[in-house]
Amino acid sequence: MKLYKLYIYGIALGFWAQGLVANAQTATDLENAVTTGSQFEQAQENTAQTRKRTETATMLEGEPGVFILKKNDIFVVGAALGTGYSDNPGRTLDTNAKDAGYASLALSAGINTRLDQQYDAGINIVASGTEYDRRDAPSYRNVIGNAYIGRPVLKGRVYLSANATAGVNTNRAFGRGTAFYAFGANASSVHKLSSTMILRPTIGITRQLSDQSEQNNTLVNVGATLIWRLQENWQATGNLAYTHKSYDNFFEDVTFVSRKDDGYRAGITVSRRINKDTDISLSLDYSNVKSTFFLSRYTALDGGLRVKISKRF
Q1: What domains are there in the chain, each with its CATH number?
Q2: At 33, which helix (H) or strand (E)?
Q3: What is the pLDDT of residues 173-190, one digit of tens each?
Q4: 273: which of 25, 32, 147, 212 is 20 to 30 A away, CA to CA?
Q5: The whole model's pTM is what?
């Protein structure tokens, strides 16, 4: 009888240990999924950077649109090299966060022009990667393509744009990538505060889909950008933004909650134009995300130095 009881206890202990391992594995998988979603966002930000300098420079000259290019300057190729620090590279629960330094590289090519003298339009492709100095940090690579179209309305007081994005995100080992897609629309306006300063409020909505269906979500963003030309080749940019992201079904069969993220972000960038093709910038960015899913709640502080070279022809 004693041997029988010991056998029963042994089986129960085995099931208990398996449960702990399974729960730990589930938590790790969920945390990795949260990090993957944040990498999708970073990839799209890298794509937006391909035309940001021209955009802000033109707005300071009084144009309401995204940018105006000469007819013979519609093609652009570029490279950006960066280094910096993040106190939460995984963009997950603060108690799990480990800080890390990083190096990044982005290569881009695109066509940006004006159609029928009314519409700004373009297609850009960016291949980028971020490598952290800690082996257990979530280094990643991605390739992303973006197409957009926009035009000023209401006598130039409001700028409307729409864009479509498709990309693939993978880890440092170039393992099986995860595809993602996004479709968005934005409205913004430009308020010239002085000859060297403008304020640009923006509102937008983005629908994101992915091969990993748990990443499917709808995002609404509201923000404002202040751009200040300090001197002829110096510029400071400040950003404030709020985002609300609602997921269709982020592993709800496991978490038993509907994931909704509310994000608050503030950042400042100081940049200097070295020559017509080269910029160098120093940035500091703070994020605070509240979420109904505990692993998605985090704060993050990032600082970085970036050199960007772009050639238009």
Answers
A1: 2-312 (2.40.128.130)
A2: helix 2-48
A3: 666 788 999 999 999 999
A4: 147
A5: 0.82
